[in-house]
Write a structure and sequence with these properties.
This protein is an alpha/beta fold and 154 residues long. It has a single domain, classed as Lumazine/riboflavin synthase (Rossmann fold, 3-Layer(aba) Sandwich), CATH 3.40.50.960. A 4-stranded parallel beta sheet has the order 2-1-3-4, sandwiched between helices. The relative contact order is 0.23. The model has no long low-confidence stretch (mean pLDDT 94).
Length: 154
């Protein structure tokens, strides 16, 4: 059986989509850059500003619960998780990275709702700055593409 969209270009038209964004405030300058790039790309893909709900939470561990609340509202075609976890000298990095990632995935699977995970997990601040803009844009494209795909599949 052939894949439904094998050989087809990704559907990146966002004009009919509603997108929710949850941004962690920890490492605020970096997550703001992620958000700026994400919002700019959503606009470029045609997502109307009034169809975007952008909320902030204290840190990456709080992102999944806010995503879950947005998912349960059934108002969104896709969600986006934005955050930045920088390795420190303790085990806390692994805990936050693993638990936030698992929580984001769980929201997507439990709700059959695309969630683009752009919570950066990096060794240092320089790596985060090097990735922030691209990852913000990528998250927007993933959310739109997957929302369109799931809309086509259901």
């Amino acid at each position: 059986m052939q894949n439904a969209n094998q050989g087809e270009a990704a559907n990146l038209g966002g004009s009919r989509l509603s997108i929710g964004i949850v941004q962690a405030r920890f490492n605020a300058e970096l997550t703001a850059r992620l958000a700026e790039a994400c919002l700019a790309e959503l606009a470029a893909l045609g997502v109307e500003p009034h169809n975007i709900r952008h909320v902030t939470v204290p840190g990456a561990l709080e992102v999944p619960v806010a995503l879950q609340a947005l998912a349960e509202s059934e108002d969104f075609d896709a969600l986006i998780a934005l955050g930045c976890i920088i390795r420190g000298e303790t085990y806390h990095f692994e805990l936050v990275a693993n638990e936030s990632g698992a929580g984001v995935s769980r929201v997507a699977l439990d709700n059959t709702l695309p969630v683009a995970n752009a919570i950066l997990t990096v060794e240092n601040e320089a790596q985060a700055w090097a990735r922030a803009e691209d990852k913000g844009r990528d998250a927007a494209r993933v959310a739109v593409e997957m929302a369109n795909l799931l809309n086509d599949l259901t």
